[in-house]
Amino acid sequence: MAKDIETTAEQGGGEFSAKDYHDPPPAPLIDFDELTKWSFYRACIAEFIATLLFLYVTVLTVIGHKVQTDPTKNTVDPDCGSVGILGIAWAFGGMIFILVYCTAGISGGHINPAVTLGLFLGRKVSLIRAIMYMVAQCLGAICGCGLVKAFQKTYYNTYGGGANELAPGFNKGTGLGAEIIGTFVLVYTVFSATDPKRSARDSHVPVLAPLPIGFAVFMVHLATIPITGTGINPARSFGAAVIYNKEKAWDDQWIFWVGPFIGAAIAAFYHQFILRAAAIKALGSFRSNA
């Protein structure tokens, strides 16, 4: 069905009113008018700053964990002397929750090229906006990691710079699969949490979209940190690799682009064409106009 009818009772009487829901129109594939609007550039700046802050806080957390668990640096129990994997996962998930909340009304709060690709494939953003967002995100990630290195250069170089690398004992196929599934969970959550149909149908249920998105990032990190260090964000992996600039990080870099992009594409297809039945709606509209 191209539209859903939601019936609600008016308070203080027995009358009922019907509220129609219509899917918002898809974003144009190429929209050059965006380039003439300040809101477009403001959104790109918001993506740049958000990704910068995301990498700064999370990479510092990773390095701090490694410093605190290094037996040559500390005499405390390594199992209790740092935030651990749980704390790292909270840092990533918590920062996404905060930054999506802060930037959702400006840029949509993507902070991740894989999320941007998924929303582009779902016709939520134009090609020009998607490309500019990805550029802003990658530049922000590089600058965020650069700040960490500027403040803690010795620790940064000694403890891996927060760069994503495939862990010993896992092959590239396992790493790729972990990134695909992890990114699918994230992008699927993004589509579900921001679905306008959900807002229209469940308007009586207050849903704060950044919360489930942040929790998705948190849960995926718990599962995949031991395998790949958890990428699910090509900008995060690219920025760390650029500043750390070691061979292993670059050898594995393709995993953190191919995996998230495949996962995002699958999530976009699943949500838009399976759950929302966009293809069936389009076919029904075509038949009704014929």
Describe this protein's structure.
- It is found in: Membrane.
- Pfam families: MIP.
- InterPro entries: Aquaporin-like (IPR023271), Aquaporin_transptr (IPR034294), MIP (IPR000425), MIP_CS (IPR022357).
- It is a multi-pass membrane protein.
- Belongs to the MIP/aquaporin (TC 1.A.8) family. PIP (TC 1.A.8.11) subfamily.
- This protein has a two-stranded antiparallel sheet.
- By secondary structure, it is mainly α.
- The relative contact order is 0.15.
- It is built from twelve helices and two strands, in the order E-E-H-H-H-H-H-H-H-H-H-H-H-H.
- The radius of gyration is 21 Å and the shape is globular.
- The N terminus is likely disordered.
- A hairpin with a 6-residue loop joins strand 1 and strand 2.
Helix and strand layout, with pairings?
Layout lengths: L2 E7 L6 E7 L15 H31 L15 H20 L9 H9 L5 H25 L1 H6 L13 H22 L2 H6 L8 H19 L5 H11 L2 H5 L3 H21 L2 H12 L1
Antiparallel strand pairs: 1-2
Helix pairs in contact: 1-2, 1-4, 1-9, 2-8, 3-4, 3-6, 3-11, 4-9, 6-8, 6-11
Subcellular location: Membrane
InterPro entries: Aquaporin-like, Aquaporin_transptr, MIP, MIP_CS
Membrane topology: Multi-pass membrane protein
